[in-house]
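Notes, Module 5: Reading structure tokens.

Key idea: the token line is not a picture. It is a compressed description, and you learn to read it the same way you learned to read a sequence, by spotting repeated patterns. We will look at two proteins. The first is printed below with its tokens.
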Amino acid sequence: MPAKPFVIALEEHFQFPELGAMYGAHDANRAPALVQRMEDLGEGRIREMDETGIDFQVLSHSAPAVQKITDPAAAVRLAHLANDRLAEAVRAHPSRFAGFATLPTPDPKAAADELERAVTKLGFKGAMVHGLTNGRFHDEQEFWPIFERAQALDVPIYFHPSVPVEPVIDAYYATYLKEIPGILRAAWGFTVETATQGVRLVLSGVFDAYPRLQVILGHLGEGLPFYAWRINMALERDWKGSRGFKDVFCSHFHVTTSGFWSDAALLCTIQELGLDRIMFSVDYPFAPNKPATEWLHSVPLCAEDRAKLAAGNATRLLKL
């Protein structure tokens, strides 16, 4: 049997207590045991990694981070503190952790500056943004300073889900929400919101303005690899983009396997997007490490391709 590859997971979350406390009392997902695991940036987390075959985690703050803070100054302060806390953990365990920055998107200029600080001063490998910023998608031009700075720094932006805004909850999910709360989150609501953000980014022209910009979507691309051909065909009728949707998507998007460990879905994503743009992730601690790594070592890929999925693609994109 070939040796198991080095394993990097890059949608793995922590929580800064002051920031997490703003949401925890109102979030059923924040059970005390889960909070304890998110706030552990040392021995307990590393023990779980060792027990389940995770060699390296790229850590990011859990949703919604600072995207739903309405006071821009407070968002800037808390993002700065959360990034400093993460940097401490990375410095303490440089062979096990790297970081994605928390960006105070309520103040886009400050978010771009914080991205630069996190990359150049703290050594972070990019940034993660959770859902909408107070109801606004990030393809709006007010947010483009973030993308301009990401291109200049040659780091990706990871778009991660958060709970949809109230009008969407009322219109799409309220009928089933009380009895089936998961429909609002990973079962469907997360996917709809984040896939919509991906489509809007393509339509906005941001990748024409910043042709070296790269972004990441989790959960095998929030369904977009499976719909890329149809979206491309349908948009040809009325969208006058410089390139087709699928060309833009396959040139600027990367996806991870976070919380989505299906052979069939992975193989479809490989066919549509290409293996070199797919990276292993777990979504810890919201998803467990063990079934993710067990799946990784059993996927129907050759040893070379499994090594790319497990670590090689992430190493190249993030310059680890």
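Here is the second protein, with the sequence above and the tokens below, as before.
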Amino acid sequence: MKKLVLVLLSTMLLLMASGCSGSNGSEKIVIYTCQEEERIQAMKAAIAQKFPDLDIVIEQVGTGNLAAKIKTEGSSIEADIIVDLEASHMENLKDNFADLSGFDTSMFVDGVNPAHHKYVMWVKQYCGITINKDMFAQNGWAVPQTYDDLLNEQFKGMLAMPDPTTSGTGYAYYLNVVNLLGEEKAHEYFVNLAKNAKQFTSSGSGPISLLKQGEIAIAMGMVFQGVAEINSGANYEVIELTTGDPYNTTGATIIKGREEKANVKEVFQWFINEAHYIDCEQFCPGIVLVNQQVKVPNYPTIKQDADMKGLDSIERKTELLGKWDLS
């Protein structure tokens, strides 16, 4: 009987130990990210080459769901490292994050990281308007240069924009127009824009999908998505309005308490040293890092940043989204 008890206890201890370790016996490191699948695959390939003996799991979690998980679960969340969560959420949830002041951050350009050291900037993702050049040529349309140009009745049913209440890309456009015109005139603007919009899509990639299907001629989306289609052979052009390109920023961090784990520290430092350059240079070329190069073919030179005052404020975002109304 005693032997049976000892066997059962030993089995339980082994199961408990395996629950904290990876399949290769090493401590499992869990990374939650909001990156798109193509970007995640690039990270996984780099990790496999750099850390073949560590069990590192990357899980894709949507922006809203990840923010909610961190808010609800705090430092007990399964993830050790968070990558590519919107800056407004990072700022709002910063009390759940480790102090990163002991990490080498010399690879960042001056002024991009917050002074409290609870996270570092990950990417600066520009929004740009992608047009179907064939449809413009066939209809003799002039290329829009301003937000007002998008209100031309000739574009009725020919454009799409992401819904700000469900898309960070849509919110970037919304915030920019509010900063340019003020809240009252911005509301009037989007009510008028809705007359030309085929759809306010639920995701940031929705307008590009409609453009690819030939349903619209103007997609208010992300620059890198328009460029990806151009590089695939589409006769598109990514244009920058005279007021500049809106943008989103995201961050990366360690969950509070996990910075004490040597492997987590090593992996995170490598992420901001090396993996960061892969993501920024090959997918999201907004300049965040020292000596960062643009390795995306046909990626346009961004001449001017749009006015994005308040971008990192979750309070401002909540306030403005509460006022989003197209009636």
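Summary for the second protein:
- Residues 1-24 have pLDDT under 50 and may be disordered.
- The domain at 23-124+248-282 is CATH 3.40.190.10 (D-Maltodextrin-Binding Protein; domain 2).
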